[in-house]
């Protein structure tokens, strides 16, 4: 989220409120609550942890507001009533957000320090090109991106043309990124890098790649 540092927290609060109203939850994970409507049997309520914000009576009142009279509810963490409502509605989106404050060259050093110390925040100046390298690092981390380098048999790896993948990508995902028919012609792959026990290691389609691995694909 790109923000104007000269506007303090006002712009951020307005944008967060707008996103909250349409069901987008920033830098929060889905509440650990098991909820399943039933056709009969009333309310089955339980919790595996002490609850300080919800009670069985409150849960029942909330369910009745949504015309739900039969359900199984299991709290696995201490959640608020609003979080329980999010689980009932079921259409909330939980996503990470990096707050990027631009124009820090136009505010005091004390304000820059305050903004930089906030969680999930980066301070930059596009005009003066300040802190852009750190922003790039944080974007890679938040987007969970990795670089995969390819290698042809008998040649050196091509470090100038990386394949950008999501963290957790397998050799099969890499094959599809290179060409849609490559996976069907796949025999095995040789991988160099931190994802292997030794280099090169012969792997199959299910092998999970890691950042800056080198791969050589052998076809049938």
Automatic annotation (TrEMBL):
Q: Could you tell me which Pfam families the record lists for this protein?
A: MMR_HSR1_Xtn, TGS
* Signal peptide range in chain numbering: none
InterPro entries, per database record: Beta-grasp_dom_sf, DRG, G_OBG, GTP-binding_2, P-loop_NTPase, TGS, TGS-like
Q: Provide the alphabetized UniProt keywords.
A: GTP-binding, Nucleotide-binding
PROSITE patterns from the UniProt entry: G_OBG, TGS
Does the UniProt entry include the keyword Nucleotide-binding?
A: yes
Residues of the TGS domain: 144-219
Q: Report what the protein is called.
A: TGS domain-containing protein
